[in-house]
Amino acid sequence: MRLIRFLLAGLTMIGLAHSASADDGYRLWLRYTLLPDAMQASIARHVEAAIAEGKDPRVLAAAGELDRAVFGLTGKHANAGVELNKGEVLLGTPDESETIRKLNLDLAGLGDEGYRVRTVTRPNGMRTIVVAGNTGAGVLYGTFALIREMQLGHSLDNLDLRSAPKLRLRVLDHWDNLNGHIERGYAGDSLWDWWKLPDYKDPRYTDYARADASVGINGVVLNNVNAAAASLTPEYIAKTAALADVFRPWGIRVYLSARFTAPMEIGGLKTADPLDPTVAAWWKSKADEIYRAIPDFGGFLVKANSEGQPGPQDYGRSHADGANVLAAAVAPHGGVVMYRAFVYAAQDQGKVVDRTKQAYENFKPLDGMFAQNVLVQVKNGPLDFQPREPFSPLFGAMPRTNLMPEVQLTKEYLGQATHLVYVGALIDEFLHTDTFARGPGSTIARLTEDQKLTGIAGVANSGTDRDWSGSSFNQADWYAFGRLAWDPEASARDIAADWAALTFTRDPAFVTPVVDMMMTSREAVVNYMTPLGLAHIMGTGHHHGPAPWVHELARAEWNPVHYHQADAVGIGVDRTASGTDAIAQYAPPIAKQLAKVATTPEKFLLWFHHVPWDYRMKSGRTLWDELALHYQAGVDQVRAMQRQWRALRPFVDAERFEKTDAFLAIQLREAEWWRDACLAYFGTFSKRPLPAGVAAPAHPLSYYQGLDFPYAPGR
Ligand code: BDP
């Protein structure tokens, strides 16, 4: 056993204090800036020495991180050779640390990633904070939990923290192309410098992994779901292996998106038919090759027969056949296949289809046919990451299949990088929704937790921007995703409070209003973009800004007009039995509620019904007035956020204050644009005046229709 000591001697660091005027956001929520004196003293008392017993790389990474945190928070540097007389922190597993083994801590039920952080009095009388887990991963997560206690200024006197993740695979999907461009990325280019890998490992990879580990993320899909077969060539496997080496001490496995026709494109086969034995053999030998280079490779993510991607249906085979051939290849190595349910291709033969029904129609009949190591990855809503969608009816509908919810952190449909929208609130709403699939209380969180193999995926929002995510507040979405993946029953509001305190300041005069602002921000974007159940009325291709008028795209279900169906009578899509009957895909209590306009929650009204302009809403107002007032409310909410942020200027360093302030100005302008363009357009159908309190559009409709965005990012 190796004994590593990080002893914190009294060296005060000079020049550590960070000027309030310079913070570029690089350090995310792991800022580790000097605490007030009393808190520093408390840490110094409890953490005079940090001792890692063992050689597990994750325990060593944890010890290094603890040292880094204490150094930043107290200004006292780790330094060997000081006699111990105060508190110490001991990190390790019972397997590797005899001291921990002898303490007989109850670690049952913590699995292989849970932790215990507990203050004990050792036989020699020394007060020790023990950070223990059954594996190094548990120790790593426990250490980050301890660091969080320190950052938040909590008492370290009598710690007893115990936590284990409720989901096994907590994965970020990077939609990164091998040429460095990120599909739907708004924060710079890909972090992975494929050109210089495997020889040069950018130190930023480690900082990325630290951030992931600090919130419990344990898997990273490196490449775009619209995959290039090249990522499976020997050259790229070597590059991927280099990244895996960097991530491993941080408890992170790498995964790759696999292109279904890779056996043909890089394997020279004549077919990619999943039932062809040569194809199965190719995938098996490819998996063996990958695992030789990366023994803990996580597995494959697959987008097939969707948006032009090849897939098993090209050979008359089912999605289960497609998933299982890859699953068989990785199964001997403990790998998994995450197979996406986001499909809307096969049925379009010129006829108009309801895209929101297609994932269910394709996958529900396959329940029970997927291999044990397959997770069917399902987007939160039945359409496509809109500001608000009802949940996908697949949740609860496939009891014999592992489903893996997928949410989008990069804000493709939420104003992109510049709009302050807390996606954590969206994820929280989704996870806590009751599907009634097994009776009341069947929330998506519970259903997901109760499966044999569990997981959740988030489409990453990080890139080469100095602040990683394009804005300070976008960082919160990365943070919240990790925390909600660890505990899907946690509250996004509580998580926002931690994040705000860690990222800016613990002062409640800052945290309380900022958390309110973040929670409101999700409602604001729904209001100024797609209130009352509207969806998919954004600009074509880049998805930036309003374009509800678009109608000329080749397929009906690509056109915004298909999603609102405004006419002289009213607005909204009839998805009841008299329309597309999408509601029949939900469990009976929900289908029954959605069958009638009067019992449908107003936030989903126009998603499920075509409603007359003069329909009386719960407020007593007409639908038209209510719609207009929601658009106005969204703008007002952004204006209030802007005012609120300006009032918080004294709490924030100039650099981050100014950036957020500038972005809020963009958001306000674009919220007004959404309101004006949508009301100008929908008004041509309703032919009713705007209600009092709603500003008239600044320009005629033709102005909004004529706007063009040739350089909009993230296509
Ligand atoms: C859509 C995006 C597209 C993605 C697709 C997907 O516009 O870029 O490839 O989702 O999830 O929202 O596969």
How is this structure best described in words?
There is one protein chain. Helices cover 36% and strands 12% of the residues. The protein has 21 helices and 17 strands. The protein has helices spanning 37-46, 57-74, 98-103, 136-151, 203-214, 234-247, 262-265, 277-293, 319-330, 358-363, 423-431, 444-449, 472-486, 492-503, 508-529, 560-564, 588-595, 605-608, 623-647, 654-686, 701-706, and strands spanning 3-12, 49-53, 76-78, 88-92, 115-121, 127-132, 160-163, 169-173, 219-221, 253-257, 299-302, 336-340, 374-379, 402-408, 455-459, 570-571, 611-612. α9 links the parallel β11 (299-302) and β12. It is globular, with a radius of gyration of 26 Å. Beta-D-glucopyranuronic acid (BDP) is lined by residues 183-184, 225-226, 303, 307, 342, 384-385, 412.
